[in-house]
Amino acid sequence: MAINKVEICGVNTAKLPILTNEQKETLFKLIEQGDNKAREEYIRGNLRLVLSVIQRFNNRGEHVDDLFQVGCIGLIKAIDNFDVTQNVRFSTYAVPMIIGEIRRYLRDNNAIRVSRSLRDTAYKALQTKEQLTRKNAKEPTVQEIADELGIKKEDIVFALDAIQDPISLFEPVYHDESDTLYIMDQVSDDKNQDDIWLENIALKEAMKRINDREKQILMLRFFAGKTQMEVANEIGISQAQVSRLEKTALKHMKKYI
Prior knowledge:
It contains 13 helices and four strands. By secondary structure, it is mostly helical. It folds into three domains: about 100 residues, Four Helix Bundle (Hemerythrin (Met), subunit A), CATH 1.20.120; about 55 residues, Winged helix-like DNA-binding domain superfamily/Winged helix DNA-binding domain (Arc Repressor Mutant, subunit A, Orthogonal Bundle), CATH 1.10.10; about 90 residues, Winged helix-like DNA-binding domain superfamily/Winged helix DNA-binding domain (Arc Repressor Mutant, subunit A, Orthogonal Bundle), CATH 1.10.10.10. It has a two-stranded antiparallel ribbon. Strands 3-4 form a two-stranded antiparallel sheet. Helix 1 runs antiparallel to helix 2, helix 3 crosses helix 5 and helix 4 crosses helix 5. About 15% of the residues have low confidence.
C-alpha cells in the first residue's frame, strides 16, 4: 500500500487544511444548525486524522484509496455523533470510530482470504489466552501464550493480525432455528484443563446434577479438549445433538455454580 502517495482519492493530501480550535468550535456550532457547508469544511479539515489512522494498516495489502474512503466514513459518523458538551477532544472521539470502521471493512473483506491454518492458530491463541487468564488471574503476554502453545511469538502475532479484531471464542459461526455453533466448537485444544476445572469445587458439585450423557459430553469437550464434531463422532450422535446437549447441561449447571 503506497501510504506516502500525495494524491489519495483525488485529494491532494499535501494541501489539506489544518483547523484551529477556534475554527473547530465555530464550525461545529454551524453544523448543529444544519449548515452543510460547515460540515464539509470540518470533514476536510480532519482528513489528516484519517491519514494518520490508516498508517496503522499499511501492512494489510489493501489499496490506500480504499482504506481512505472507509476511514472517511468513520470520520463522518464521528462528526455526526459528536457531542461538544461532553468536553472531549474531537480527535479522541473520532479515532476509535475511524479505526472501527476500517477494521470492520478489513474483517469483511479479508474473511475469505485468511487461510484455515492461520485462523486455527489465531483461535487457539485466543483460547489459550482465556485459559491462562482464568488460571493466573491476569492476562498473559503474547510470549506466554506462545510458550504454552509451542508456537513462535511472531506467528501468533501474525495470525491474530490476519483475522483483524480478535474474535471471541463464543462468536457464532453458524446459526439456524435450533442450533448455534461457536468458534470454540471448531477449535481443538490439546492441553489438559483439569487444573483449571477441578480446582473449582462448586463445578464438581454441579457436575453431579446432570445426567451421564451430558456429563460425558462436557468431560470430552472441556477436560479432553475435543471439538463438538470429535465428540459427536466418538459417541455416535450428530454435532447438532452434541451442541444441544452441551448447552442444556451448561444451562442446568449454572444454577449450582
